[in-house]
Amino acid sequence: MAGMSHPSDARSAGSESGWLRTVADEVRSFDRSSTAERVAELLRHRVIEGDLPPGTRLSEEQLVEVLHVSRNTLREAFRLLTHEGLLVHHLHRGVFVPELDEDDLVDLYRVRRTIECDVVRRLEGLDAARMRPLHDDVAAGEDAARRGDWVAVGTANMRFHQHLVALAGSRRLDETAARLLAELRLAFHTVATPQRLHEPYVSRNRGLLDLLAAGEWERAAKELEDYLHDSEAELLSAHRDRSRSTP
Predict the structure, then answer these.
(1) Shared-domain flag, residues 219 and 124
(2) Has residue 10 got a pLDDT over 50?
(3) What is the pLDDT of residue 3?
(4) 100 closest CA partner among 240, 5, 198
(5) How many structural domains comprise the chain?
(6) What percentage of the chain's residues is helix, strand, coil (to nearest 5)?
(7) 80: containing domain
(8) 10 CB neighbour count, 10 Å cutoff
(9) Domain check: are 113 and 72 in the same one?
(10) pTM of the prediction?
């Protein structure tokens, strides 16, 4: 990926133990017969949840012990995630979570608009059960905003967009959306003030949900297109501000 930085080992040392504890909790229900794809899925999920920020070094030794998988299985999972742009290998230094540059962000949003807006335009009558995850995500985002927990707001927003794509009922679209949103979460970590990035979309998610619940698919698609354009512009602006302030 263009514009990759070369993060230091020290940058990630402080955060390693926290996310590894989370992985250890998840692994209790881990299918021991799972393949490298399952390991990659677990690590991808941790990126989406915000536990693996850019610069994090992934330790083979720790992950082999926590996941109870072979080094070959773990390395294949690393290879899969490197292909997706979620990991990068630095010779003689190890495997790291990368940073995105502006070209990456523009491309991500181009693909997001193509997928998400098309899903919404093609929707037909949805029952309440299929809409429930979206209601839960919006409520979670609103609750986190009231608490001032803007990282949790970002997580609720990620889940909202995942569940939005899931309305299409396509496994392939679900997998693509998960990869896109995991990459996007990396960009969120570069913003010094997450409130600036996430606050406007708490109410916009509620408005979009109301349009979906009313079956106004075309209006919802247009709102979503504007929403994603605005989100892209804000994220690019925040990225540029950070670049100017970095020595």
Answers:
(1) yes
(2) no
(3) 41
(4) 5
(5) 2
(6) 70, 5, 25
(7) 9-96
(8) 9
(9) no
(10) 0.74
